[in-house]
Amino acid sequence: MGPTLETPDFSMSPAALARAADDIPAAASRRLAEAVASGGGRPLTATLDLLDRILLGVFDLASHGRLLFAVHPDPAVREAGRSASEAADRWFNAFRLDRGVYALLLGSDGRGDDTTTRFAREKMLREMRRAGVELDAPGRARAEALSNEIDALTNEFQANIVRHGRTIRLASAEDLLGLPEDFCAAHPPGPDGQVVLTTAYTDVLPVLAFARKAEVRRETLLAFQNRAYPQNQPVLARLLARRHELARLLGYPSWAAYAIEDKMMGSTQNARAFFHQMAGRLGPRARADLARFLERKRADVPGAERLEPWDVGLWSSEGYYDQLVRREEFGVDSQALRDYFPYPRVRDGLFALCRRLFGLTITPAEGASSWHPAVEAFDVEREGQPIGRFYLDLAPRDGKYEHAAQFDVRSGLAGVQRPQAALVANFLEPDRPQETRMRHSDVVVFFHEFGHLLHALLAGHGRRIYHLPSQIEWDFIEAPSQLFEEWATDPESVATFAGHVGTGAPIPPALVARLRRAGTVGRAMRWLTQTAAAAVSLDLYDRDPTGVDLTDAFRGIFDRFSAVPLADGAHFECAWGHLAGYSALYYTYAWSLVIARDLLSPFADRGTILDRETAERYARAILAPGSSRPARDLVRDYLGREFTFAAFEGWVAGDP
In CATH, what class is 14-134? Predict the structure, then answer.
């Protein structure tokens, strides 16, 4: 088998990671050469079995490296993890251009194999064609060089956002007026009387939600949106240029056309039509949101003529006037609400829901190693059989990935190894994570990322690497996670895990009902912002980037759609990691949401989101198959029809 990383070792030194980054791809290349030299003509199943075993080791190297790059406390290990992931990326870039492997796949006999086996081959062949395997030798060499540079630039862009975070210096503790007591206690004034904040989410989100002084909110938002400025401007310019060059080399007019071709959306024309369709549906409700918030602002600022980006929650539900309207009109105080969401109770309640819905038993993984003492590890069983392991890394620290995401730790393959995954976020208090009282918005994020994690665990038991959920159409990838958010907001579900931190008393049903209704406040405005961001990601990648002023282009595209324009002086193009990672595909979130709202329909038909039979059917039809079939087919089989906008439209209109 050669060197592997089948058993995760998070204590590997930078030198050991470097050896793995050399040895694992080299061993895979030797085995691949032997497979090609042995000739074609073997049954397709045998060919795929052979290739999957070879690919698995490099997949695991990539996962191990990416995770350590994102979360390890030692900067040297983080950099070694980045190098390991890039070594795996380089190997895959070469693999996709290997004409010997291409011929091996074409020459394998698939007669008698099932459709999912043939689909795996079709996906591999399509990926190789799209990588440039049919180009001449100079073309393949240039395509490989460009792909390698694109991977390195993407990592550099993301690393700069963490490396070049900013600080905000407030004149005194008075500037924290309106913020929770525990936040103020965690940010005491220094000897000079100043209060220092960072651009970590744990500082930025509470300030934007609760700081009464508009100037404090403005300064915080600008610092957040100017992370990695100007460092990322040349990185982004090169990334756009290299992706455009690669797309042209492969015969596409733009990177956006290339990126969307094999997704559910299919074309840039369809994507633009979708944006305008979304804007038409969301616009009237978003304008009503704005009028509602502006009226409330005028109570504080008589004669105010407009809302500023730091006044409302364009990207999240926790904007300043969003909170005030929810408290004053619905009786929902998000600060007091935290008392009903102590982290251990939310976590254990989530696990109990997984048992109730999907028959999963989740227990602490005794003796499991991790990369930091605050990380929790859990083993998962289903009907008494172990199915995988996951890790929770939920507290912020220096150098850690600042967003929330699910990372693969090990890819699951039937008969070889079980899947492992990590949920990474930053909403627990770093000094006392188990005592954290969560904001409800963080509970929603927790459930969202857990939806990704469930997908990874339940789909990680097939025979094919190309059936893993990571290989599914990227504009479907968010649908299972957005669906799982519903269990964090539905009153019947919330009642199963929300309880007072002091007394243990369950959350009052009337409060949950008000929370649900309050959740409609600003909804259309936020999703119009998401549409604006999706338009930015598409348009920046659907052009020749030569000579483009990225700040002006970003602002011009965004402001055409958004209900509130970007702040003057913001350079969000440097701080928005999705622009590099998702490239032209940020529309995924809005497209997946339309699908996710419809995936809830069978639960609505049964009258409860806790219906076990429907949950099991959903797990079998959508989660467990991974990418063994096209996403549209999975959805059609589960719903018994094509998905529609109807459920999404009702949700935007204010249906709880």
Answer: mainly alpha
Integer Rg of the chain from CA:
25
Secondary structure of residue 43 in the 3-state scheme: strand
Q: Determine the average pLDDT of the residues in 138-148.
A: 98
- Give the closest residue to 422 by CA, choosing from 11, 64, 76: 64
Extract the tokens encoding 208: 């934007």
DSSP string, 309-351: TTTS-SSSS--HHHHHHHHHHH---HHHHGGG-BHHHHHHHHH
Mean model confidence pLDDT for the chain: 95
Tokens of 80: 């070694």
> In terms of C-beta density within 10 A (0-12 exposed, 13-18 middle, 19 or more buried), how is residue 304 classed?
middle
Return the structure tokens found at 53. Answer: 């075993």
- Which residues make up the CATH 1.20.1050 domain(s) of the chain? 14-134
d(CA 482, CA 509): 24
d(CA 187, CA 196): 7
Closest CA to 489 of 526, 527, 448, 454: 448
DSSP run (H or E) holding 377:
strand 376-382
Give mean pLDDT, residues 378-401: 96
Strand 385-393 relative to strand 376-382: parallel, antiparallel, unpaired? antiparallel
